[in-house]
Specification:
The protein has 4 helices and no strands. It has about 90 residues and is mainly alpha-helical.
Length: about 90
């Protein structure tokens, strides 16, 4: 199922709409021998794809901060509520 989802997202990304996939790591999923092997096979598959970026949530946040920084005036300003420091 992970491979099918990954392949679909790659196809959509190649069409010009980049995607992000999250793989849950709950102990009920990866804590069983057969399931951890399936995860290992999936990660080996992803490693064969040169355009796939496997990263942590903090790496994603750093990427967004670097490439899409907060702007007091501009498109990202509308994403944040106004804060009055005098209050």
């Amino acid at each position: 199922m992970l491979k099918a989802e990954f392949d679909q997202l790659c196809e959509e990304g190649a069409a010009g709409a980049p995607k992000m996939m999250t793989v849950a790591m709950h102990n009920r999923f990866v804590g069983k021998p057969g399931r951890i092997m399936a995860l290992k096979r999936f990660m080996a598959y992803v490693a064969t794809k040169p355009d796939a970026w496997v990263c942590t949530r903090s790496e994603i946040a750093a990427h967004w901060r670097e490439h899409y920084p907060y702007e007091k005036v501009g498109p990202t300003d509308r994403l944040h509520p106004s804060v009055d420091a005098s209050e």
